[in-house]
Amino acid sequence: MSKIMTGAEMVVQALTDQGVTHLFGYPGGAVLPIYDALFHQTKVKHVLVRHEQGAAHAAEGYARSTGKVGAVLVTSGPGATNAITGLTDALMDSIPLVCITGQVPTHLIGSDAFQECDTVGLTRHCTKHNYLVRSIEDLPRILHEAFYIARSGRPGPVVIDVPKDVQFASGTYAPPKNIQHKTYQPQVKGDLAKIKQAVAMMAKAKKPILYTGGGVINAGPAASALLRELVQQTNFPITSTLMGLGAYPGSGPNWLGMLGMHGSYEANNAMHDCDLMICVGARFDDRITGRLDAFSPGSKKIHIDIDPSSINKTVAVDLAIIGDCGHVLEDIVRLWRTEAHQPDKKAMAAWWAQINKWRARNSFGYKKSDTTIKPQLAVERLYALTKDRDTYITTEVGQHQMWAAQHYKFEEPNRWMTSGGLGTMGYGLPAAIGTQLAHPDSLVIDIAGEASILMNIQELSTAKQFLAPVKIFILNNEYMGMVRQWQELLHGGRYSSSYSEALPDFVKLAEAYGMKGIRCSDPAQLDAAIQEMIDHPGAVIFDCLVDKAENCLPMIPSGKAHNDMILPDTGEDIGSVIDDKGKMLV
Amino acid sequence: MNAQAALSPYSSSAGKTERRETHVLSVLVDNEPGVLARVVGLFSGRGYNIESLTVAEVAHLQGLSRITVVTSGAPETIEQISHQLERIVPIHTVTDLSLADAFVQRELAMIKVRGKGESRTEALRLAEAFRARVIDATTESFIFELTGAPKKIDDFVELMRPIGLVEVSRTGIAAITRGPLEM
């Protein structure tokens, strides 16, 4: 029912009507009316972060782990600029967010007022869409439209910049009803003729591979179930990007492990040698393809994606199907079944025999040690001790992130929250808090590095205040490990500014926040220490002292092709692998 | 794009055709604040070229404006530009006119020429041949208004240069498909 209310009340009412349970934010002058409206209600719980970047990442963790839209509220000027890293992160990884920013009153816009910045100008490039609300009459429509745009199509962040006078103004609020946007109409159903063609190509394939990405996760749990059914019916091997982990179970028989720069030998070689690649909801990112002119040279490629601009962006494909992964997979599974297709059994047997040879290379293997904890071992043991629990994993960015992706097996979608596209150090802790608040009874672990965790360490206060029992599992090698590894690769082992100097005592840091601190450096004590972390009812910082020199392998060095990987057991000198052209790449 | 980036094996130019084409894109947008910034920002942010850009309201009641962009690049790049434009929320349609059956394009230019005596007569004679109109005149100058395809304007400007070209102001092109149908 329509109702007269202030702009600030409309914001809170719209959040309620859109099903927002948690709003991550930080107050300031230009959003005080909205904070006042929040004060008068109990439906939307405000989670006070300690830095606006943390608000955006916490909302991302919330969104990624629930499939819902994450909500953020920040003030004008520095509030908005601090949120920009999180917004960009959400844009790169297609995470639905609605971020409401306060703005100076309309008559002061453009006057360099206190805490004024051009928020819509600054966020134009890091949002799916943004709005400056100039009049109270527009506010209800914009609020509902923002949620619709954030969650539909290829999801992404939407900013609504609300000047303070609009927050005070009164107007008529109407709840959301079937929102139809006049220009924004994403295509969700795939073209059936093309889907038929895809199924025919699949039936004829002799060396097929499914390459799936975050689009399958974004399409909802039903899409993951359909993907599993398709794999089961076709017996096709399957690999996935970092963002797509969990869509197909990590323990499944057809799983090849993650692909790409730090992907498995079998996944990358199968991508290189396949005769049919079926890309579902992934975007041929440079971490995935490696050298483009040597990328899977002999294959036909099918690309299923909801975003037409992803098609032929970096890799030309033979068949493109625009649509939601869930809808398209549903059609494919149905056609495969009703047309009674059978994979070419003989060819598939030969293909799997080849894949198993690659698998036998054990590319995620590493040298065991009795004296120091190998980071890979730490993740393996963490997996072994948490796999039978209701567990969510977030990460920061760097070596620990790749080791987590390699050694932690995800059985379900929405259990893995990591910063893929933007590679944002400092993502993991706030994301863990957002995830934990959405799943209060679950075990939420941030697999971190000692450098990344310090980037948003202030969020320990948020965890403490909102009783989020997150477990921060730091693989502490006293280096920005991935930077150190690249300096070894490219710059003769000159570790310029990559040593983690002047680290805090993480155990004491935990204690300073009233949390539990655990330190472990002995492989023999590791299981007991991890168990102690799991069993502790509150938040824990686990300072896991690991091998300082370990490199994250296997690796496709920059500028090389999928079948040209550095493997863990080939040679010690990785400093001579990359040529001058490769050195220019990131 | 700098030379280093062009060499990169990650560059999206790898495996693409060397051929560069010039295309005219006609973009129908909601006439709302910031929409032009979104379009221009897309071109600069992703490193695409703008050779000319024209924008004006075309349907007041529906609040629609048309942006006509002339851009150049490999055919794959131009396809990518169209798709990237379509992602912008207040954009209704993107039509690559260069892929359409046929279209007409016109540009308006104002050309200021300075001179006395024989050169004045020469300028007027050439203007007549190009069907340029005189819209301002002093004893030592003319301003010509000329409408046509960009090439015709280029040609006229080149002819005026030795006579006493002062400066030129051009609108960039407006374009529309031939025949009875909407774009």
Automatic annotation (TrEMBL), chain A:
<dbReference type="InterPro" id="IPR045229">
    <property type="entry name" value="TPP_enz"/>
</dbReference>
<dbReference type="InterPro" id="IPR039368">
    <property type="entry name" value="AHAS_TPP"/>
</dbReference>
<dbReference type="GO" id="GO:0005948">
    <property type="term" value="C:acetolactate synthase complex"/>
</dbReference>
<dbReference type="GO" id="GO:0003984">
    <property type="term" value="F:acetolactate synthase activity"/>
</dbReference>
<keyword id="KW-0460">Magnesium</keyword>
<keyword id="KW-0274">FAD</keyword>
<dbReference type="InterPro" id="IPR011766">
    <property type="entry name" value="TPP_enzyme_TPP-bd"/>
</dbReference>
<dbReference type="Pfam" id="PF02775">
    <property type="entry name" value="TPP_enzyme_C"/>
</dbReference>
<keyword id="KW-0100">Branched-chain amino acid biosynthesis</keyword>
<feature type="domain" description="Thiamine pyrophosphate enzyme N-terminal TPP-binding">
    <location>
        <begin position="5"/>
        <end position="121"/>
    </location>
</feature>
<dbReference type="InterPro" id="IPR012000">
    <property type="entry name" value="Thiamin_PyroP_enz_cen_dom"/>
</dbReference>
<dbReference type="GO" id="GO:0030976">
    <property type="term" value="F:thiamine pyrophosphate binding"/>
</dbReference>
<dbReference type="Pfam" id="PF00205">
    <property type="entry name" value="TPP_enzyme_M"/>
</dbReference>
<dbReference type="InterPro" id="IPR029035">
    <property type="entry name" value="DHS-like_NAD/FAD-binding_dom"/>
</dbReference>
<dbReference type="InterPro" id="IPR012846">
    <property type="entry name" value="Acetolactate_synth_lsu"/>
</dbReference>
<feature type="domain" description="Thiamine pyrophosphate enzyme central">
    <location>
        <begin position="195"/>
        <end position="331"/>
    </location>
</feature>
<dbReference type="InterPro" id="IPR029061">
    <property type="entry name" value="THDP-binding"/>
</dbReference>
<keyword id="KW-0285">Flavoprotein</keyword>
<dbReference type="GO" id="GO:0009099">
    <property type="term" value="P:L-valine biosynthetic process"/>
</dbReference>
<comment type="similarity">
    <text>Belongs to the TPP enzyme family.</text>
</comment>
<dbReference type="GO" id="GO:0050660">
    <property type="term" value="F:flavin adenine dinucleotide binding"/>
</dbReference>
<dbReference type="GO" id="GO:0000287">
    <property type="term" value="F:magnesium ion binding"/>
</dbReference>
TrEMBL record, chain B:
<dbReference type="InterPro" id="IPR039557">
    <property type="entry name" value="AHAS_ACT"/>
</dbReference>
<comment type="pathway">
    <text>Amino-acid biosynthesis; L-valine biosynthesis; L-valine from pyruvate: step 1/4.</text>
</comment>
<dbReference type="GO" id="GO:0009097">
    <property type="term" value="P:isoleucine biosynthetic process"/>
</dbReference>
<dbReference type="Pfam" id="PF22629">
    <property type="entry name" value="ACT_AHAS_ss"/>
</dbReference>
<dbReference type="InterPro" id="IPR019455">
    <property type="entry name" value="Acetolactate_synth_ssu_C"/>
</dbReference>
<comment type="pathway">
    <text>Amino-acid biosynthesis; L-isoleucine biosynthesis; L-isoleucine from 2-oxobutanoate: step 1/4.</text>
</comment>
<dbReference type="Pfam" id="PF10369">
    <property type="entry name" value="ALS_ss_C"/>
</dbReference>
<comment type="subunit">
    <text>Dimer of large and small chains.</text>
</comment>
<keyword id="KW-0028">Amino-acid biosynthesis</keyword>
<comment type="function">
    <text>Catalyzes the conversion of 2 pyruvate molecules into acetolactate in the first common step of the biosynthetic pathway of the branched-amino acids such as leucine, isoleucine, and valine.</text>
</comment>
<dbReference type="InterPro" id="IPR004789">
    <property type="entry name" value="Acetalactate_synth_ssu"/>
</dbReference>
<dbReference type="GO" id="GO:0003984">
    <property type="term" value="F:acetolactate synthase activity"/>
</dbReference>
<dbReference type="InterPro" id="IPR054480">
    <property type="entry name" value="AHAS_small-like_ACT"/>
</dbReference>
<protein>
    <recommendedName>
        <fullName>Acetolactate synthase small subunit</fullName>
        <ecNumber>2.2.1.6</ecNumber>
    </recommendedName>
</protein>
<dbReference type="InterPro" id="IPR027271">
    <property type="entry name" value="Acetolactate_synth/TF_NikR_C"/>
</dbReference>
<keyword id="KW-0808">Transferase</keyword>
<dbReference type="GO" id="GO:0005829">
    <property type="term" value="C:cytosol"/>
</dbReference>
<comment type="similarity">
    <text>Belongs to the acetolactate synthase small subunit family.</text>
</comment>
<dbReference type="InterPro" id="IPR045865">
    <property type="entry name" value="ACT-like_dom_sf"/>
</dbReference>
<dbReference type="InterPro" id="IPR002912">
    <property type="entry name" value="ACT_dom"/>
</dbReference>
<dbReference type="GO" id="GO:1990610">
    <property type="term" value="F:acetolactate synthase regulator activity"/>
</dbReference>
<dbReference type="GO" id="GO:0009099">
    <property type="term" value="P:L-valine biosynthetic process"/>
</dbReference>
